[in-house]
Amino acid sequence: MHAIELTPEHPVATLASFAERAETNGLDAVFASHHYNNRDQFMALSAMAERTDDVSLGPGIANPYETHPVTLASRVATLDEMSGGRAVFGIGPGDKSTLTNLGFDHDDALRRVLEAFATARRLWDGERVDHDGTFEAVDAGLNYEVGEVPVYVGAQGPHMTKMAAKHADGALYNGAHPKDLAWAREQVEEMADERPDEYGAFDLAAYASVSVAEDEGAAREAARPPVAFVAAGSPPPVLDRHGIDRDAASDIGEAISAGEFSDAFERVTGPMLDAFCIAGTPETVAERTAALEEHADSVVFASPLGPDIETAIDLLGAAIDRRSR
């Protein structure tokens, strides 16, 4: 799978146009990210479904804190119905910096994510569900039929990655560097014997922030915002793997939580850009993508994509076309 992530910082109609362009360029899936201060991801995905015919569509990711997991399961099922069976359920704990603004923390993150998608699967199978864990559901059910929806867990740390490898259809692994994907592959392989056979093959997808343009400097400058969020949300072992100062990453997270985005983006360093984003010319992006695919089964080209998104989608599509020949 080669896919892209679109951030609903743009109008919904524009996002739908981008998704249509992605399909035209031969991409397999389009994910919509979620932060409360952007437009609603499911409304954006609904518009994308109306403008496309073949690409898979899904949240990348939705979190089970802001929305009750039963309601979240119904939203994904509705998207699947609207798109003619093309939904993918991307679920994860969510971004720490923006969830803090809403009074949520990441308590029991792994357990909550697992319980949320396990409940969703039961609901999609037509069961009525009683659940008393990180959330409560009493005789909950959906009043309509749902097809099979693949579940991809947003992961970065060892525990979430291993849980995904055991229980989910795939992982959207938050990494843009071969070091990270090589490490993620090790976690997946450790769980191979514990994964039930009926789940089938596991898809380790590199969810890699990408910024591509003919001008390398412009591509790297456009990468600052997403790299700020990745650096702020990365666990200490990931920061240490790339020699990133923990305090510097923490300062970025504090600036984001305070709404001081310009300050946060300015604090992004060159090593952070190299560790957490593939940024540069089409040739650079093609080389870095090939390096990721030595460890990953799929690649999701995540935001920002580039200083001009339409051009970036075309450049990525051309790169994929060249690699497939």
UniProtKB/TrEMBL annotation:
Luciferase-like domain location: 9-294
One MF term in the entry's GO annotations: coenzyme F420-dependent N5,N10-methenyltetrahydromethanopterin reductase activity
Keywords recorded for this protein, A-Z: Cytoplasm, One-carbon metabolism, Oxidoreductase
Q: Which reaction does it catalyse?
A: 5-methyl-5,6,7,8-tetrahydromethanopterin + oxidized coenzyme F420-(gamma-L-Glu)(n) + H(+) = 5,10-methylenetetrahydromethanopterin + reduced coenzyme F420-(gamma-L-Glu)(n)
A Gene Ontology term for the protein's cellular component: cytoplasm
Signal peptide per UniProt: none
**Keyword Lipid biosynthesis recorded:** no
TM ranges are: none
Q: Which domain of life is it from?
A: Archaea
Q: Which GO terms describe its biological process?
A: one-carbon metabolic process
A matching Pfam family: Bac_luciferase
Q: Which subcellular locations apply to this protein? A: Cytoplasm
Q: What PANTHER family does the record point to?
A: 5,10-METHYLENETETRAHYDROMETHANOPTERIN REDUCTASE (PTHR43244:SF1), PTHR43244
Which protein family is it in?
A: Belongs to the mer family.
State its role.
Catalyzes the oxidation of methyl-H(4)MPT to methylene-H(4)MPT.
HAMAP family given for it? F420_mer
- Put simply, this protein is called 5,10-methylenetetrahydromethanopterin reductase
Q: Which gene encodes it?
A: mer
